[in-house]
Every structure is written in structure tokens, then in C-alpha cells.
Fold:
Amino acid sequence: MILKIRQSLNIDEILKTAVTEVKQSLQADRVLVFKLESQGMGTVVQEAVNDRQTATWGFDLFDPCLVNCVEQYRQGRISAIADIDRAGIEPCHIEFLKQFGVKANLVVPILQQDTLWGLLIAHQCDCPRQWTEGEMEFLRPVAAQIGIAVAQSQLLRELEQQVEARTAELLAANRQLQQEIEERHQAERSLRESEERFRTLVDNIPGAVYRCLFDRYLTALFLSDAIEDIAGYAPADFIHNQVRTFISIIHADDVERVMKEIRDAVVERRPYQIVYRVVGSDRRIRWVVDDGQGIFSARNSNQTGDQIAELLYLDGAIFDITEQRQAQQAVQTSAAQLRLITDNLPALIAYVDNQQRYQFVNQTYEAWHGIPQSDIIGMPVYDLLGEDLYQQTRPAIEQALSGERARIEIKVTLKGQQVRDINGTYVPNIDAEGTVCGFFFLGNDVSQQKEIERLKDEFVSVVSHELRTPLTSIYGSLKLLKTTTESTFSEDDLGILNIAVSSSKRLIRLVNDILDLERIESGKVTLTKQACNAAEMLSQAADAMTTQAQAQGLKITTQRESVTVWADPDHIHQTLTNLLSNAIRFSSEGAMIWLGAEERDREIVFSVKDQGRGIPADKLDTIFNRFQQVDASDSREKEGTGLGLSICQNIIHLHGGQIWVKSVLGQGCTFYFTLPKGDSI
Amino acid sequence: MTARLILIIDDDLSILQIAKLSLKRGAGWQVVTASSGEAGIALAESEQPDAILLDIMMPSMDGLATLEKLKASSKAHHIPAIFLTAKTRAAERHQFYQAGVKGLIPKPFEPDDLAPQIEAFLGWS
Structure:
């Protein structure tokens, strides 16, 4: 039994074993373990009892007489009562025992060192019983073992409780640890994400983002990858000056200035923006702009307790502006070239904005007005030109500012009272959005040109009179001589006389054609346009040339389609007779000439077709030029002046039409020209 | 063809001569000549020609001024005048007709055609 008790640590099991074994050994009616709580109070914590006896297990019992015996028990004494009625014990105790049917009892104290823990009690209920010494000695070690077991059990429980508490603490600590770990992971994730975002941000900045110390090397603490694009070196090279310093890639001529500008900005606590050159790994120079600022920390001064700022580092970004700079330089060069060109042009050149203020004038413009360029820039046009001249140019200015090109001729009175003729062109400057930003003015002094034109007019007038008058005399004299005295001349003399007559006739035609051409080309011819019947014009031209055609045995056929053209009839008559005259002169006897006019789209196409010798392909393009004839001898043999087609071309162009020729050499040619339809105006 | 008396006024003596011969020989007309506007007006008033052939560009008094004077003359205002001229521009032609000429014969003229042209302008047959 004692072995069992020793082997077990389960107190309930121990006590159960103890009471069961003791009851069986003593053949007692009841064996119980009473745990003493306080004075006279206790609990039956285990019991082995016969079925017919009252069970006390689990009862809280109060034995008022127990207090008297406690000291006795503490000293380890065993109480053995053979018959409660004869043992002379307190009646209250007898009363207490009788309620459980007790007749005899044996009480052995259970001690834990000097403390009375409880009692091991054996009851005999049926009859008195004389407890033997052996029985008492049997119970003593049992009680002792119970005491030890209880102590151990308590110890175990305490241990278990401690373990439990500790376990709980550990679990709590573990939970906290896990939570902390989770929190840390979360923080790390956030940091990583934040860093990722920062990195993406930095990588997307089109410049090298940096953090560096403001020391003699500009020691880099952080430098983004973009530095590699700018300088050709890996960013890691610069971190803590591992391979090279940042200052080493700044152009030697710029270092001092860069450091000074940073220092000034740091002292004044303002951001800096510095443009300097970076020498790359390939020795190529890149222009950069460095935007940065000093980052300060506030700390307390030891002496005064005031907050003083300490420069921690420089934060900023470096941007490659080489291309912008090159473009800028190109613009500057271009502007300088433009200035050089415009300043050396004799024309007046200006740019005026849409507020009618000068933004640019060239030297000629400046010289004309006698005011320095710098004073003219920004000046309103009105202020510079004055009332009269401004009113002259106003319509053109307004037209240009409405987005349309304008041209005017103005008379400008210079300070020296000299009047000059200016041909002004106003070209609007329209931006991509269609807004008129201003206009360019280009003025040409055409005074000299005008004078030349006047002289030419005079010359033409003189020529027309002075050449024609003697020509009239020569031709008239020869003609009179020939027609009236033919019979008196020898055949040779008559031949010579004929040469003189035809030559003077040719000279007359030439003078007439030259004057005609000059008048048309100088724009002095004013067309009197009207609706004309094309068929009528064709027949009038045919009639005018009939005599000449018949003299050469030619037939002119006129197409009689009735279409109306918008033209000056006299000039179109001149054109048609010119073309007919050519056709007649270059046709052989018996040939046909066709005159036609047909409607095509919004135009009328006239044609003069012959069966003459035709025009070689290489002459088709030049035939309308002055003095250009298929054969150089034509002017003599065919009585042409070489100006007829040129006159025709000018007349047709004045009408807004086109003239051209198609020809097959040896088979004749067809001249075409177009005129606007009569109802198209 | 009726014998006519024509007054030719031109400062160029050669032209006077050619024109005179052309009309005499070609049409058998009588011709009187003057080499200035002033002389021409006097002759017109005294001789009463059937027509006057008048040059435009003349020194001192030009053709237009002479015509104006003729038109103002009580004795000569009725005599038809034709300009003989090297000026053939449209604008000028218009101006000349406005001044009261009956026709324009451009220089250089065809001697044989001179009389027929005058007849055509003046409606002589």
C-alpha cells in the first residue's frame, strides 16, 4: 500500500487507495481522511465505508471538541477509543460521533512537518473495538505517507499551477511575440512597398535624384540610376565615394562656381538652381541643371539653449539639358543670323504683335525713322508712324491682324521732306491654334523703280512718236515712189525699192509689237471685258485675214458654235489675228486653216489649226518667248517679228486663261487658248 | 471722186510732204499744209478746207489744243478733223474722240489707204 502511495502522485488516488486498503486491513466499518481547515472545521476528502453506514465523503464537518485535541494530534499522538460511551469523552463529541453511527474510533494525525494537515480516522460502528498496538503502528506510517503524499501533491499542484501560469505567460508572450513579428512583417512590407514606390518615382524622374553631403567631394549618399544616362557611370560608384566623387565629374571650370552657389544657397536657406557641365565617361560634355536645397535638422545649442540648424545633406535632382541648350544656342545663332541678314537688307523689316506694338525692326527700319531700335521695340505702331502714315497703313494692318496677307503702296515723307514710295507687304503670323500673334512687315523703297517706270513711259512715248514719224516718212516716200514711177525704174532698181519697202514695213511692225508688248507687260493695258460671242469673234478674225489668206490660196474654216466668253474683244481679236497670221504665213498653197471654240468645264477653249510645217518638239516650250522663232530666218522670210506669240500669251494671261500649242512636225500645229465663260462671272 | 480740199497740220515737213502727195496722187485732192497749230487755224479759217488732218504731238500748240481752238473758232468749228498720230493707246483714243475728232489714222500710215480712210471716217463716198 505504501508502495502504491509512493508510486502515485495523484492525491485522490492515493487517499482512495489509503482508505480502501486501511479499511480492508483493519476490517473497520469506515476509514476516512479528514482535512482540517480551521478550528474544529474540516472536510472529508476521502472515505471508504461499508454500505450500511452513512457516507461522510465530501461533508464539511464541525467537531466542536476537536479544538481540544489539536495540540495532542500535532504532537503525533494517536487517539484510540474502544467504546465512545465508556471512554469518558465530551458528550458533544459523543453526540458528533453518534450521528455517523461510530462506536469506536482510531485517529492518527496526518502531519506535514509540524503542521497538522488532517486526520486518518477508522471507525467501528457495530460494536466497540479494542484497537491493537499493531493496528495503531500500522496506521502511523500510512498517515505519515499520506502526509508526504499530500505535501508532494500540494507541491505538485503548486508546481503544476506554476507551470500552468508560466505556460500561460509563455503563451501570452508567444502571442505577443507573434503579433510583434506580424507587425514587423507588416511594417517591413509597408516599408518595402514605400521603397518600391519611392524607387519607381525616382526612376521615373527624368533626372538623377541625389542626396549628398556638402563636403569637398559632394559625397553621395544616394544617387538614382539616371546618373548613368548623364555621366555614363554607375550610381554605386559615387556612394560614399567608393569609386569616384561626384565633384570629379563636374567640369573643372565650373567646380568653383557650383560650390559657391551651393554655399550661398545653404547660407541663405534657399533652394539653388545651377547650370553646369558634366564630363561623362566618354569625355563628352553634357550640360545639366541642378535643382536642390540643403536639408537641416534643428537641435538645441548647448550655450544658449536656442534652436540652431545643422545642415544634414543636400537633396536635389540633376537634369540633362544638353539638347535644350543646343536648341537654344541654335535658336540664338539663328536669331543672330536673321538679325545679320535683315540688318543688311535694304528693305524695311519689322515684326508687330497683335497689340500693334513693335517686337522687331531691322537697321534699315531704324535708320528710316531715325530712332534707336531699343526705343522702337515695344512702341505702338501709331506712335512711331504718326496720324497720317498710320491712317494710310491701317487697313493693311487690320487685314494682316485678321489673318490675311495685305499689300499696299504708301508715300512716306521723310524728315528731310523727301517723299518716298514704299511697297509694303503685311504677312500675318498665325500660330498652331490659328491665333494671329502679329504680322511681319516688309517694305521696299520703290521710289527708284517708280522713277525708272516714269522714265520708261516717257521713253516709250517718245519712241512711239520719234520712231514712227521718220518711219512714216520713209515708208510713205518709198511707197509713193514705187506706186507712181514704177515704169521709170529698171528691174534691178525696182527690186531694191521693193526691199526698202518691205524692210521699212517690217521695221514698222517691229516697233508696233515692241510697244504693244511693253504696254501689256507693264500692266498699262486695261482690259474692257464684256460678254462676247465666240463665233462672232472667230468670224471677224477670219474676215480680217481673208485677203491675206486668199493671196496664198488658203481656205479658212470657222466653226460656228455659239458660246459666250468674258473678254476684251479688241485684244482677243488681236490674239486671233496674230495666230491666224502665223498659220497663213507657215501654210502652203491650198491648205486649210480651222478656227474653233468649244465649251469645256467653266472655260471656252479656242483653237487655230493649220496644216503647215509644224513646230519641232524641242521648240514647243520656248515658242511663246520673245524673239523665239522656229527658224531664225523666219523674221525675214515670213515677215514675223518674233513677238506675236509673246503678245498673245500676255493677253490671254491677262484674261486669266492659258495658251499652248500641239504640233506634229510636218503636219501642222494647233494653238489653243482658254477664256472664262461669259456666264461664269 | 469729188475734188476735196484738205488741210494737213504737222510740224514734220516730211510727213506733210508724204501725206500731201498721197492725197494728191491717190485721190486727186487739193491739199494745203501748215507746220504749226497756229498757222493751221489761220489756214482753216481762210481756206475753209473740207477736212483737217491734224498731228497730235507738236511743239507749242499740240493737236488737242489746236482742235479746241478750231472748235472755238466761228469760222472753222464746222470743219471735221481727223488725228494723224503715233499715239494709239485705248485711253488716249477715248480722250481724242471726246475732244471731237472724227477719226484716228495711226502713223505710220499706208499712203494708198490715206484717202480711203478719210472718206470712211467722214462718210464721203
In short: The interface with chain A takes residues 12, 14-15, 17-19, 21-22, 25, 57, 86-91, 107-112 of chain B (CB under 8 Å). Helices of chain B lie at 13-27, 37-47, 63-72, 90-99, 111-122.
